[in-house]
Every structure is written in structure tokens, then in C-alpha cells.
Design brief:
Length: 192
């Protein structure tokens, strides 16, 4: 999905580190591309975290500040410049968002690889991972495999010792049983 805004507006949102966006259309909590309305270029991606519908005349100072404007007058001036009219009862969406850095998705046409525009992405594909996340997951998987390998070796050793103790008990070899019990105690201390 795309949100089309003037380039200056998008740059203002990014540079002022705004956390809210006021638009006329309804939005859902998902990822949107901020697109230049003149040229159609994607400038940034935002993840909308929460939305509320209010009348344009009910936009208060804290909402205007979170939208990156210094005063309500600045906001209404920019609104008038963009829409040519201010209707106080017009419903608007106040969307709380966070910027998504370097988001990538699999393109609808797979031969094109990845895209930074969520509107061009396949609908059922999750966001692609960056290099740092891939490396972290690979390291976690390697550690998990090593833990599982050690656990499997410990279980195999315990099975082997259990069989050897049974055989020693059946043979009434008390010295061998004592030696195996000491070996089990030693391995249990190493495992902890």
C-alpha cells in the first residue's frame, strides 16, 4: 500500500522525526510506502502502529506536534496548501507510525528479486531480513545444533552406561558396577 504525499511533506516527516501522520483516507496497522505524489517515487516506508478517526477541526496541539509541525497554524497552512480547503467536520485519520529502515520484500514478479515498495510485494511474503539479522539467526542455529549434538551424545553415553551397569549387575561384578557409578557421577558433574 502507498501513501501519496508531496516530497517536501515526506522529507519534513523524516527530518522532524514525526511519529504521527494525518491523512484523509483510512489506514490500517500495516506497512506503507510514502510516495512522492508528483513523480511516484518511493521515498520511505512506515509501519503504522495505531490509527484513530477524528474530524479535521478536532486536531489538537499534541497531535500537530507529533505530526512534526511547530504550531496548529503551521499544520492548517500546510493542509490548506495541499487540499485548497479546510472543512472542520471532514473526517481524517491520525496514524501513529515508525519509520522502517531498509525494508525489503519479495517482488510480485519473482524474477525482479526484492523491492522496497510494499505495494509491489507479494501479499503472502514476509519482509526480507537484512544481513545482521541473517547472521544472528545463522549463529543462533549453529549454537542450537551444537547444543543438540552434545545432548544427543550425553543421552547415548547414558544409554551405554545403563546397559553396561545392567550387564555388570547380572554378572555380579561389584567392582565394575562401582567403577561405572563413579563414571556416571563424573559425567554428571561435567554436564552441570
Amino acid at each position: 500500500m502507498n501513501i501519496r504525499l508531496p516530497y517536501r511533506e515526506i522529507r519534513r516527516l523524516i527530518s522532524t522525526r514525526a511519529s504521527a501522520l494525518i491523512v484523509t483516507r483510512e489506514l490500517k496497522p500495516e506497512i506503507y510506502a510514502l510516495e512522492d505524489c508528483k513523480h511516484g517515487d518511493e521515498i520511505a516506508c512506515v509501519r503504522v502502529c495505531g490509527v484513530r478517526r477524528i474530524a479535521l477541526g478536532e486536531v489538537d496541539y499534541p497531535t500537530v506536534r507529533s505530526n512534526g509541525y511547530k504550531t496548529q497554524r503551521d499544520f492548517y497552512d500546510a493542509w490548506y496548501q495541499r487540499h485548497d480547503i479546510i472543512r472542520p467536520r471532514r473526517p481524517v485519520t491520525v496514524a501513529v507510525f515508525v519509520l522502517v529502515e531498509d525494508a525489503r520484500w519479495l517482488h510480485k514478479r519473482v524474477h525482479r528479486g526484492y523491492t522496497r515498495n510494499p505495494a509491489l510485494a507479494t501479499s503472502d511474503h514476509a519482509q526480507a531480513l537484512d544481513e545482521a539479522d541473517l547472521e544472528r539467526y545463522a549463529n543462533d542455529a549453529a549454537l542450537r545444533r551444537e547444543r543438540e549434538r552434545r545432548e544427543e551424545l550425553r543421552r547415548a553415553r547414558a544409554r551405554s552406561l545403563g546397559i553396561r551397569i545392567k550387564q555388570a549387575l547380572l554378572a555380579a561384578d561389584h567392582a565394575e558396577v562401582d567403577r561405572l557409578i563413579a563414571e556416571i557421577a563424573h559425567h554428571n558433574r561435567l554436564a552441570v
